[in-house]
Every structure is written in C-alpha cells, then in structure tokens.
C-alpha cells in the first residue's frame, strides 16, 4: 500500500470520526467490521463515495461485494439510494405501479407482474420521470432475494433507475446481483432478503465506548443462516420466547448486511403451517442420524432439527438478562 493511499485513508477516517464524535482508531475498527474489509484501498473508495453523497458507512448505506475472496467496488445499497433521494430538497414524490399482466419466470413457483412502473417527481420540472423495469430483463435466477421476493426486488430496481434519471445520479450498485451465488461459489457480503442494508439507528459511540459492531455474527452460507434463525423460530413456537425478543436478539447479534434476511426468515418460519397427515407408523432414528441432518433453505423449520455452527468471525455469544435462548 502506498504512503499516499495510507495518508488519504487516515485523513478520511479522521474526518468521519470527528463527525461521529468518536476516536479515529475505534472508528476505523468499527468501519472494518461494518464493511467486512481491511484493505485500505477499499476503505478509501467507500469513504470517498460516502463523503461525496453524504452517506453513512456504518449504517448500511454502502457495502463491499466480495467475490472469490476479492473486494469489489463499493456500491450503494437500496437504503442508501432512498436516503439520497428523499433528502434532496427538490424531491417531490414517487409512485409505484405493478403490471396487471402476469408472466411465468423460470425458477419461480408462481407468475409475477410483467413489469413495475415507477414515477418520480422533481420540483421545478413539469413532467415526471416514468420508468418501466421488466421482470424478464432484471430477474436473477441465482439470487436468493430475487427468488424469494421477485416483486420487491423489481420495485427496488425500478426505484433506483428512476432516481438515477430524475436527478442525474451516478450508478454505483445499480446492477449489483444481490445475493448472487455463481458457479465459483462467490458471495456478496451485503445480501439481505429485502435488497436493503439496515442497522439499528443509534448514536455514534463516544470516544471511551467500544465499537458495537465487533460482536456481530456473519453467516457464511444460506444453510447456516436458516439453521441459526431456526433455533429462534422453534423457541417462539414452543413458547420459550416471544417474537419481539427474537427480533431484538437478531438485531443485536446479526451483522447489519444480513439482518433483514434473517428477520424475513423468522417471519416466514412463524407463519402457520398446514397440518401434515398422521404417519402410518413411527419411524425410528438413531441419535447420530438426527444430529447429522442439516437444515437447508428449502426445508421447513418444523421438519428438520436446528444445527448450530461455530462462527469464525463472530464473538462468543454471551447471554444477558434479555436473552432466553442460546442463539
């Protein structure tokens, strides 16, 4: 790393830390945790983007795609796009309308709207910007959020395109494949079920306070995420906890880039399930066969045991007075 890059990064970190009323060293530690990277070149690019567009790197406004172990280009999350648009003084509203015509897309179980139409108004401009995004052109078959929430992701895509054209904004992150898992098993560290990266709204840590993101969990696979959240689902269903406490625990423990996806898994897991017919005979299983099963995204929470995997990046879970189950 060149001295010039190191000096620029240090200077930017200091400016962001001053705005947050935080010690620069602690801010940099929290920043590395929030973005999931340590390379100074990547941090410099992310902070430069945030400073230019007045975004917060610690609250999920930007993220770093990681593909095959390499840092990608800093990209704006959907949350970041909405922050940019709604904070502009000349923003004058937006409306979204889905096509009544439904089409069948390979990889989806049910037909979806053919397109989404987003209309965005800008003060001082007589005519609004009208954008249509077609599902056939935008659907990403290897993306978990696109498979589970195609309408929502299509809406986000339309909003971003309308925002770019309405306000002549740069297109960082516009074509990012959220949650894409390709043949090389590349992953994006910002995948979430809503296409949105969110963190709990909180004041910046004071100089003497330790950075909170250091204890966040980050799941390496979808199966691991479903398994760990499944522990909370089972606890709520069995009456050992409540949905509110499960949400609180996820918010406190899960990395911001995966929080929304975990919350969605929790919601889906708690939905009423159709009653299964009584089995003709009770199958016997050894303890070893039960333990060897692994919960996958396709399995129902009630049909497989919950398997907890250790997290390399996560701090050991410590139970507090608010915790009732060992998530």
TrEMBL record:
InterPro entries: RecT_fam
UniProt feature, compositional bias: Polar residues: 289-309
Top-level lineage group: Bacteria
Pfam families: RecT
Gene Ontology molecular function terms on file: DNA binding
Biological process (GO), any one: DNA metabolic process
Annotated region described as Disordered, given as residue ranges: 271-327
Protein name: Phage recombination protein Bet
């Amino acid at each position: 790393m060149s001295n010039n890059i190191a000096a620029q990064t240090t200077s930017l970190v200091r400016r962001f830390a001053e705005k947050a009323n935080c010690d620069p060293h602690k801010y940099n530690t929290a920043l590395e945790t929030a973005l999931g990277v340590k390379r100074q070149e990547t941090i410099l690019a992310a902070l430069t983007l945030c400073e230019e567009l007045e975004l917060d790197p610690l609250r999920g406004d930007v993220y770093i795609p990681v593909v095959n172990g390499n840092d990608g280009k800093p990209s704006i999350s959907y949350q970041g796009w909405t922050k940019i648009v709604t904070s502009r003084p000349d923003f004058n509203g937006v409306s979204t309308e889905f096509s009544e015509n439904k089409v069948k897309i390979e990889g989806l179980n049910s037909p979806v709207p053919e397109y989404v139409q987003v209309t965005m108004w800008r003060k001082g401009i007589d005519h609004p910007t009208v954008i249509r995004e077609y599902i056939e052109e935008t659907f990403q078959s290897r993306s978990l959020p696109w498979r589970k929430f195609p309408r929502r992701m299509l809406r986000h895509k339309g909003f971003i395109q309308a925002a770019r054209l309405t306000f002549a904004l740069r297109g960082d992150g516009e074509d990012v494949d959220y949650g894409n898992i390709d043949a090389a098993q590349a992953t994006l560290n910002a995948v979430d079920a809503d296409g949105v990266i969110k963190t709990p709204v909180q004041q910046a840590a004071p100089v003497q306070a330790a950075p909170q993101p250091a204890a966040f969990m980050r799941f390496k696979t979808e199966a691991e995420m479903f398994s760990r959240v499944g522990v909370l689902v089972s606890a709520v269903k069995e009456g050992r906890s409540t949905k509110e406490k499960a949400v609180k625990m996820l918010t406190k423990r899960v990395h911001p880039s995966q929080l929304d996806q975990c919350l969605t898994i929790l919601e889906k897991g708690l939905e009423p399930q159709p009653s299964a017919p009584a089995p003709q005979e009770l199958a016997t299983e050894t303890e070893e066969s039960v333990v060897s099963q692994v919960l996958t995204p396709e399995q129902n929470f009630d049909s497989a045991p919950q398997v907890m995997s250790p997290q390399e990046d996560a701090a050991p879970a410590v139970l507090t007075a608010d915790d009732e189950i060992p998530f």
